[in-house]
Amino acid sequence: xxxxxxxxxxxxxxxxxxxxxxxxxxxxxxxxxxxxxxxxxxxxxxxxxxxxxxxxxxxxxxxxxxxxxxxxxxxxxxxxxxxxxxxxxxxxxxxxxxxxx
Amino acid sequence: xxxxxxxxxxxxxxxxxxxxxxxxxxxxxxxxxxxxxxxxxxxxxxxxxxxxxxxxxxxxxxxxxxxxxxxxxxxxxxxxxxxxxxxxxxxxxxxxxxxxxxxxxxxxxxxxxxxxxxxxxxxxxxxxxxxxxxxxxxxxxxxxxxxxxxxxxxxxxxxxxxxxxxxxxxxxxxxxxxxxxxxxxxxxxxxxxxx
Lengths: 101, 195
Fold this sequence. Notes:
heterodimer; A: alpha+beta; two-stranded antiparallel sheet; two-stranded antiparallel ribbon; B: mainly beta; 4-stranded antiparallel sheet; 4-stranded mixed sheet; 44% strand; globular
């Protein structure tokens, strides 16, 4: 990657991370830091595709998962997907949940 | 951790803010653009500052264990709509806690650098529970952190199914490498007693 592209990316990042209201923060503002990828640089999952056990050929037995049971419905979230997205916005049996890692 | 994302009858949806607090990722909600601390389960800035999310019980385990215990389980597919290679760990070669990654440095010798720990902070006290030590037997570990009595529920199979206080309120906790935990909480204590 050449220097111009790096500079452009840095500028774009700087623009993206502005814009949150911090004046009423309940934690010290000075401790809210920018770090890592910019806003939405890690894309959250908003429209998760959920499949049955029989369609889970992408899973290996030792793969870690985060599992929940809501109103009797069990659902698993592979850590290898959460690694790339940080948060999955899902709904189970009418209950909206956020799965984070 | 898993949260209910309904507040005052409105379902929020969350994205990744690119901001950090105490080296932990801050989420934001698309509806109000408030910032939310994953660890505190609370909005820390913006229109919803001070509001809390309800933590739901969740389990961290292997696919083998989960699918055997819940044969009817459904699962999030790797067909996410994003072009990512889910067979690769994006943080390979780094120690990581929730979107923080950094190269290896000096590590306190209490535990091996890559020992996995359950980390809990209450008040000014941080304590690490080495998973290899606490998941040997099913049962409940009772301990005192930051002056509060806590209970860690260990299920058969070594699964940690919940951390709660003595009012049965679920408590935030993290599963991380010792290396990362001791970097964030240099004064952390380490759970030592055997049951």
